Amino acid sequence: MRNVVRVFSGLAVPVLAAAVITAGSPGFGAYKVKQGDTLSHIASRYGTTVGTLVALNKLPGNGNAIYAGEVLKVPGKGSAKGSSRGSGQGSTTESPAKRSQLGRVTYVVKRGDTISGIAKRYKCSQANLLAANGLKPGDPIYAGKPLQVPVKLRPKARTDNTFAGRTYSDKVVAAANRNRAILKKRKLPTRSEMRSLIVSTAKRHGVDPELALAVSWQESGWKQRVVSPANAIGAMQVIPSTGRFTSRLVGRDLDLLKPRDNVTAGVVLLSRLTGAARLDIAVAGYYQGLGGVKKNGMYPDTKVYVKNVLRIQAQLERGWDPLR
């Protein structure tokens, strides 16, 4: 059976064997999200995990939808002004930059232990160990006493900046987060309404409606609220650079956050692609870029994408309705 250490926040933190990484000091603070922040960066700053922040703040999905100005609950004593200082129980002699990389280990003192011995074992300074526990030099410790030991955390691989096996910059991910937050607040068409919009737009631009529907179903399931870490937006999953390209083709600025403009951008791109290449290459070009397909051939994931889209198109032509 696992022992449990109960902290002042009321959360139960399991301790495996003698020690386990905990999410900072007892209690909670607040952190105001700044432009460019990602949840993984905030988690690292406060010595916790993305999963913990998602749970504490009841964030949707994997927590991608955070936005500048939002105040998040964080473990320990945070700052609502977006301070980069780490949380702590008492003060430490570490600089703010170093504190942001620290976590805590709960260690139960054994007979014969000393402050210097524990500090050496965990590769932390005696001063930091004392400060983390509100102790002064010379204060006694005893067997069975739990100590909070500051330890350096290994940086964890990010998961909020990857999509389809590709990694995107913090700037792109931040833009995606902002767009996702905007769409979250909007009243948007139902999937049935999006289907009708795709069909009417495809007919207007001379594109096979079943092809446009198949691409959108593969990309988003006919949902305008979807934004990928690559900042592909909406029902047709159009990235901003493609939105600018298709805006020039139609002669007006397209707002990819608006359902009608998003569908127009995707359909116009399909029209351009199907006019320049055979169907499978055109579909591959929608996913990988036509230039990339012609230069490098289809990547393995592109081949899967094309197969899926063409299969969905054939099913739609036979009367399949995924919304039933």
UniProtKB/TrEMBL annotation:
Composition bias, Low complexity: 78-95
InterPro entries assigned: LysM, LysM_dom_sf, Lysozyme-like_dom_sf, Transglycosylase_SLT_dom_1
Ranges where the LysM domain occurs: 29-74, 105-149
A matching Pfam family: LysM
Chain residue ranges for the region called Disordered: 78-103
Name of the molecule in the record: LysM repeat protein
Organism name: Kribbella shirazensis
Lineage, top ranks: Bacteria, Bacillati, Actinomycetota, Actinomycetes, Propionibacteriales
